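Q: Sequence in, structure out?
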Amino acid sequence: MKRTFLIAMLVGLCSGAKAQLPADVFREANGHYQEGRYPEAKAAYESILANGNESAALYLNLGNTSFRMGDAARAILNYERGLRLAPGDEDLLFNLDLVSMSTVDRIVPAPRLFIWEYWDGIKGVFSLPGVFWSAYAVWVMTFAFLSLLMFASSFPIRRLALIGSIGMGVLFVLLLTVGVSRVADLSRTDQAVIMSSLVSVKNAPDNRSTDAFVLHAGARVQITDNVGGWVQIRLADGKVGWVEGGVAEVI
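A: Exactly. Output:
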């Protein structure tokens, strides 16, 4: 029994020694990409994702590889997934805009209240770890000001401590709200990208229903309902219709 256990341990150690770290696979995939071996690069990048590792840089490179392979829809999907992790990433935003220009559909978003644009801009400044580390630092500063308020002997210092603690408290609440909103964004399952080259969007969840409009690969949609394998989608311009679930992939 002991001998069997020892052999199992040795096999496990040998397997572990041969296993590549995600960073090594990432460098290997980058090498494939630079040499123009895009299918190999794509497989390597996707193997990292399959092992539960993700990053904005990984989605950026996978999106670039997909575009090089002529799959603009999957490139858009990966750029969008990267932007969920790093909303303000300039490379992701630039490449997303560039690839979107190659798609067929031109969907003009309906006007939004300016406050929501500002809110999206604030959220885009922070990554999820960044916002919570910032909130932690502000929380510590809040307690430092409160301690100074309690133990300071002179009135000017106590007044400064009071103002500082109020300001830090407001900033902490704002950062916490941003953090909660970022978590909600990451857990959303209602945003998707059309993957099929041509899709007839129906007025009802039935193949016999009349066509409402058509969409092409790369169009971004919001999923609002699902019935028996069909999903109801809404476009940024407000149009609504039904498509079969397999034609769109969740971001």
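The longest helix spans residues 155-186.
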